[in-house]
Design brief:
disordered C terminus, mainly alpha, 79% helix, 16 helices
Length: 297
């Protein structure tokens, strides 16, 4: 897979991720842990079917023989799945998405510490510009961080922390273990942990249909695509382009969920898009890096 194809795959994944907020806003009665349980369960079943179709009986063997890095990645997916949906039940979509936009900074820091690969100056500059756009949203358009909104943002902080660790794990795995199995592990752990808290399950058929959409198209498929694309991108790039979920999610919730963003949010979103476009165009126009430059990119 080429770099351009990996970026296209990642952008498509962020678009699918971004439907989470708007679909959640159309649920009739399902809330909190009940939403998380059903979404994670449907995602785990989808990934299990996909792996079985692709590998046959070897899929179960891959699960039983998964190494430490696969299980750790699975734990990070579980944290992301659980914190994201529970936070959405407590505060506005924009609050959750903007909070998880801390991922690129955390990923860049971890990349230097864990992988020994300092992030290039251009990538740091793009992160800084994107962060400025996010800060613009924070400063003027975030809803009041009191009561349940404050709790929602605190829970949402688990997403960027777990995501940063996960992107480092994916890059460290390289062409080694298939981390698609980690998505299955993550969905299973999330469903198992939230089932007791979601019980009794009295979800309506209407809500079950929407949660099925979330589990399959907003979680399982994009996560599998991201795992594949991330093998061909640096951890910093993966987390940077994942910021598009913030922009797409806010726009979709505005168009179909009734949560109208303010001017500062729109300005901040445009800033993020411009920074990402610059990063990709600059990377394409730059000459091929030499061995020393590759280690710093």
């Amino acid at each position: 897979m080429t770099h351009r194809q990996a970026v296209a795959l990642l952008i498509a994944s962020t678009l699918m991720w971004s439907i989470g907020g708007v679909v959640t806003r159309h649920l009739e009665s399902a809330e909190g842990f009940e939403i998380t349980f059903w979404r994670s369960l449907f995602a785990a079943l989808t990934v299990a079917i996909a792996l079985s179709w692709r590998r046959g009986p070897a899929a179960l063997v891959a699960l039983t023989e998964a190494g430490r890095i696969v299980w750790l990645s699975g734990a990070m997916w579980a944290v992301m799945f659980t914190c994201f949906m529970f936070a959405l039940s407590l505060t506005q979509v924009a609050n959750v998405l903007i909070t998880q936009s801390l991922t690129p900074v955390l990923t860049a820091l971890l990349a230097g510490i864990v992988l020994g690969r300092p992030v290039g100056s251009r990538t740091w500059a793009v992160i800084a510009v994107a962060a400025a756009g996010i800060a613009c949203m924070y400063a003027f358009d975030l809803s009041s961080l009191e009561g349940r909104h404050a709790m929602g943002v605190l829970i949402a902080l688990g997403v960027p922390v777990a995501a940063a660790v996960n992107w480092i794990l994916v890059q460290r795995a390289g062409r080694g273990p298939d981390l698609s199995v980690a998505v299955l592990i993550g969905g299973t752990i999330s469903a198992a942990c939230t089932l007791p808290l979601a019980w009794p399950l009295d979800t309506s058929l209407h809500d079950l249909g929407l949660l099925l959409v979330l589990g399959v198209f907003q979680l399982a498929i994009p996560c599998l695509l991201v795992v594949r694309a991330a093998r061909h991108l640096s951890a910093a790039e993966t987390s940077l382009f994942a910021l598009l979920e913030v922009v797409f999610g806010i726009l979709l919730t505005w168009a179909f969920g009734g949560e109208r963003p303010g001017t500062a949010t729109l300005l901040g979103g445009c800033t993020v898009l411009a920074a990402l476009a610059y990063h990709e165009l600059a990377k394409r126009s730059a000459p091929p890096p030499g061995p020393e430059q590759s280690a710093r990119s």
